[in-house]
Amino acid sequence: MTINKKIYFASDQHFGAPTIEKSKIREQKFVAWLDTIKYDAEVIFLLGDLFDFWFEYKKAVPKGFVRVLGKLAELRDSGIQIHFFVGNHDLWMRDYFESELNIPTYYEPKEFTFNHKTFLIGHGDGLGPGDKGYKRMKKVFTNPISKWFYRWLHPDIGIRLAQYLSVKNKLISGEEDVKFLGEENEWLVQYCKKKLTEKHYDYFIFGHRHLPLEIAISENSKYINTGDWITHYTFAKFERNKLSLENFKN
């Protein structure tokens, strides 16, 4: 890492929910945060669910989100590295971010190393034991045949239907799972502990839970959940060899 530069992590903005009007207020706040970090950011990780729904047709993408997309384009053009992990709400992303914004897109957790510290980074959905209902549903959503049939819906119908289900279906929205369950019941904690038996990681960083969490997995390994930009407005920051969980107040 460059001296005096930092790495930032944020997730679960869910732009588009619960309404476009209310979403724009949060979008402006997120863009303001991006403006504050652009002076010292070397890398920005967006850990999924940037949108409450995103589906890429071959020749169309959902309308809106101009401010955040424009800001990401500006930061990327300035030389800041940006990495995007798809979440359970924007898992139908294809190559739009890569082709239009030059932002690589990942569908599974990925390992990175900064300042001799190893990170395992991802969105977090469907990892660890349990959550069987969502895992079954994700298999249907990501099935190539399901996606092929869905593309035959006119975007005005397909996007409206998906936005309705995204907000109303608690299995998708995660509304039933917004409280700390205790370490023994936190699936991502169990996932991190299992991964640690296979290889050492200094930091596990995920989103999805909508809860800012900082939990020691071992004496020298830590799990961080970046929270959300709906209630908490939290993010993680790595500076030199220190990772902190912080709140944006604006």
List the helices and strands and how they pair.
Elements: E1 6-10, H1 20-37, E2 41-46, H2 66-77, E3 81-85, H3 96-101, E4 105-106, E5 110-114, E6 117-121, H4 132-142, H5 144-151, H6 155-168, H7 170-173, H8 187-198, E7 203-206, E8 212-218, E9 221-226, E10 234-239, E11 242-247
Parallel strand pairs: 1-2, 2-3, 3-4, 6-7, 7-9
Antiparallel strand pairs: 1-10, 5-6, 8-9, 10-11
Helix pairs in contact: 1-2
How much of the residues is beta strand, in percent? 15-25%
One letter per element, helices H and strands E, the order comes to: EHEHEHEEEHHHHHEEEEE
Q: Please state the average pLDDT score.
A: 87
Q: Largest sheet, if any? A: 6 strands, mixed
SS-derived structural category: alpha/beta
Q: With helices defined by DSSP (H or I, 4 residues minimum), what is the helix count?
A: 8
Distance between the termini: 28 Å
Q: In the CATH hierarchy, what is the class?
A: Alpha Beta
What oligomeric state best describes the polypeptide chains here?
A: single chain
Are there runs of 5+ residues with pLDDT below 50, and where?
170-174
Helix fraction by DSSP (H/I, runs of at least 4): 25-40%
Tell me how many strands there are: 11
> Mind telling me the CATH superfamily name?
Metallo-dependent phosphatases
Strand order of the largest sheet: 4-3-2-1-10-11
